[in-house]
Amino acid sequence: MERILITGGLGFIGINLAQYFADKGNYVICIDNLSRPGPNFIKSLQNLIRKGNVFNINNVDSSKIPFNLRFLSQNYPQVKIYLENLCNSIEIKRIITSEKPTVIIHAAGQTSAVDSILNPFIDFQDNVIGLINTLEAVRQCSHPPIFLFLSTNKVYGTKINQSLIREDQVRYTLIDPPNGFTELFGIDHTKHTPYGVSKLAGDLYVQEYCRTYRIPAGIFRMSCIYGPQQFGFEGQGWISHLVIQALLNKPITIFGNGKQVRDLLYISDLISLVDHFINHVKSNYSQFRSNFSIEPLIFNVGGGLTNSVSLREVLDIISRDLNKPLHIDYNSTRDGDQKVYISDISKVSRVLDWKPQISPKKGIHNVIEWTKAHLGLFQ
C-alpha cells in the first residue's frame, strides 16, 4: 500500500487521481485551497483554510460545500483532506512530515493562461512558490517520496508556431515534425504567457531538485486533459466548457478561426500513465538515491497524433452527439495561443509501456453524459 499525497486534490485531475488510488486500497491525502471550487461555492467556506485543518464534513452545512469536496468526503471518507494553501510553507512541511507520503503528485496550481495575463503575481505565487514549498519539505525527508510534477505544453510557448503547418478546411495540419513535438523541442526566445513561464520555472526547479538532492522525480508536460468531473471555463478546461455551453444552449465563443489543433488525453488514460510511472520509479528507486548523475523522467504527455483534433472538429463531435446545431461566435486570436500542439508520445510509450485507449469521440460522449446528469450544477 502506498501513501499518496495529491496537491490540488480537489481539482479535476486531483479528485480523479484520489478516487482511483483510494479504490486500489492506498492511503490517500489531499491538499487543496479551494481556489477552483466548482459550482455552488460559498465564500465563507474559505474560513476553513487555516492551520492545515483536516476537513470533516460533519462540521459544516453540506449545502454550503462545493461539489468536489462534498463528493470526495461523502463517497471516500477514508481520504484525508487538508484545506490548506501551498504558500503556507510551515503547514505544508508539517503535513508532509507527519503524513510521510511515499508518493507526491503535484497537481496544484493556477491553470489558466488567460488569468495569468490578468494577474501574473497570483500565477507566480501558486505555480512557483507553492511548488518550492512542497519541494523544500520533500528534500528534508530522510526517505524522499517519489515526486511527480504535472506540467504543461505551454512551456514550449509560441515557438511551436514556427513549425511547418498546412491550413486545411477544418484544421491546421502539422507537416514538420510529422509525429508531434518531442521533449527536445526548444523553450527559449518564445512567448509563453505568464502561465507558461511559471510552469516552466516549476519544471526547471523539479529538474534541479532531482539532480541536486537525488529526489526520484518525473515531469509530465501535458496537452489537453479532459473527462467527467471537470468544471471547465473559457480560460481552462475547454472541452468541458464547450459541452456545458452547448447543453445550456448558450453561445460558444471561439478565439481565432477554430482550426487550432490539440491532442486530447482522457482522464482515465492519464491516471493509468501515473500508475505506470509510480511503478516504474519504485522499481528503480535505489538508482535515484545512489546515482549523482540521475536525471528526472521528463515526458510529453497527451493523446498523440491519433487523438489530435481541431476546435471545429470537437464542435462537430458535440453537435452530432447532441443532434442539434451549436451557437458559435468567432473572435480574434488570443495572445500567446499555439496554432498546433501535438505531443510526440513515443518516449513515454516506450519507457513506461503505455498508450492511450480512449478516442476523442468516446471521451467527449462521456463528458456529455456526465454533464447532462449534473446539469443543475451549471444552471
Structure, briefly:
With 379 residues, this protein is of the alpha/beta class. It has twelve helices and 15 strands.
Protein architecture, described:
The protein starts with a strand and ends in a 6-residue tail after the last helix. Helix 2 (67-75) links the parallel strand 2 (27-32) and strand 3 (80-83). It has a domain at 109-161 and 177-227 and 265-305 and 342-356: Rossmann fold. It is built from 12 helices and 15 strands. It has helices at 12-23, 67-75, 89-99, 113-118, 120-139, 193-213, 238-247, 267-283, 285-290, 311-322, 346-352, 360-373; strands at 3-7, 27-32, 80-83, 103-106, 146-152, 164-167, 172-176, 217-222, 224-226, 252-255, 261-266, 297-301, 308-310, 328-331, 340-341. The protein has 379 residues and is α/β, with parallel strands linked by helices.
